[in-house]
Amino acid sequence: MGPRGSALICGYTHYHRVLESSLASLKKKEDCLLCPTGFSANMAVMASVGNIASLLSVGRKPSKREKVAIFSDALNHASLIDGIRLVERHQEAVAFVYRHCDMIHLDGLLSSCEMEKKVVVSDSLFSMDGDFAPIAELVELRQKHNFLLVIDDAHGTLICGENGGGVAELCEAENYIDICIGTLSKAAGCHGGFIACSQKWKQLIQSRGRSFIFSTALPVPVAAAAHAAITVARKEKWRRKAIWSRVREFTSLTNMPVSSPIISLIIGNEESALLASRHMLKSGFHITAIRPPTVPSNSCRLRVTLSAAHTSDDVKALCNALFMCVDFSCANSITSSNLLNLNYVAHEETEDRAFLSQNDMLRAKL
Length: 366
Description:
Largest sheet: 7 strands, mixed
Oligomer: single chain
């Protein structure tokens, strides 16, 4: 498995460097930093962003104006939320949560914020709803408010864009994304996370991102496999075309508006979602019921993920099985704005039961 130590001690090899170079090229960035997981990559970025305030106020706590203002979409991934909470607790940043994909709300928050250092962070393709962030509008706001724009492109990398560069490539916005975070465990089919950014940001994260500094580096075979996967995925563009063909076929068969390979079918309560999941398993499809704390109560769902390995016949069989347990007329009746209201509250630490573990929730009830 190669040297088993942190990247800064003995875990970094030629294979890791080659992988970083290929990812930097894919994302059109100066450099790239590998992390053990996508979760640790998001944590490292948020910790480093917050550390800027501490670096500029040596020997004392930063004042409110010196802190970093972080604006986060209400439905961002838990790893981004945890990273933001961490720097808030260290009194290095102040978090502002804007309604899901609501650029008017974000614009208002940015306009009323008197703090100089501003960061906007968003998933590019949201994992539980399958909708895209409004990248073009985020770029417009970046030009207006001069903030650092960070996206988590975990679900867009190698899926979107002509070359698999992700949602930023799809939206022709690569030059406007300051930091692009991703994972190697989705489309790449391997393991690990990465941060594509400038060389200066890489140096800062290497020295301040504790989830990177104190974690064992990726095993050499995994790094080599990930590099091979990226090479193949960039070259064999038919794979992306196949995925989007399956998306169009699903839409045609169900009359359900679908915008990505992540298809969220809202069921409602946990029992109904579990029954639907068991039915799908018996029908030959492994579709897990997504329940709290991953999603808010009464918005349990089946999450379908289409891939290039699926055929048209697979999609037809999938839809036939789904028709037996899902009412497509109301499968997405819980709108994103309704989900937002639930998650917007859950984003606040004082009312954050949605992110407790199931054991903690059980103890709370007892």
